[in-house]
């Protein structure tokens, strides 16, 4: 699951799926990491490339 809030991270955990945090700025990235996100990116460009959308 890809999300940009700590509640998205919690939803992913509750669903038992992996989580990729998306943060457009340092403040959001910090909040996601403080909530326990292990992977946080500032752009989804690479993800879209892997999925064939870029």
Highlighted features:
54 residues, alpha/beta, three-stranded parallel sheet, flat
Summarize the structure.
With 54 residues, the protein is of the alpha/beta class.
Helix amount: 40-55%
> Structural class, judged by helices and strands?
alpha/beta
Distance between the termini: 19 Å
Q: What's the main sheet like?
A: 3 strands, parallel
Number of domains: 1
Strand order of the largest sheet: 1-2-3
Q: Give the ordered list of helices and strands.
A: EHEHEH
Topology:
Layout: E1 2-3, H1 6-15, E2 20-22, H2 26-35, E3 40-41, H3 45-51
Written account of the structure:
The chain is α/β, with parallel strands linked by helices. The protein has one domain. The chain has three helices and three strands. It has helices spanning 6-15, 26-35, 45-51; strands at residues 2-3, 20-22, 40-41. Strands 1-2-3 form a three-stranded parallel sheet, with helices on one face. The model has no long low-confidence stretch (mean pLDDT 92). InterPro entries: HAD-like_sf (IPR036412), HAD_sf (IPR023214). One of its GO terms (molecular function) is hydrolase activity. This is Phosphoglycolate phosphatase-like HAD superfamily hydrolase. Keywords: Hydrolase.
């Amino acid at each position: 699951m890809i999300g940009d809030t700590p509640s998205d991270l919690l939803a992913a955990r509750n669903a038992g799926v992996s989580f990729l945090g998306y943060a457009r700025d340092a403040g959001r990235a910090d909040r996601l990491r403080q909530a326990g996100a292990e992977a946080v990116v500032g752009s989804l460009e690479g993800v879209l490339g892997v999925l064939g959308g870029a």
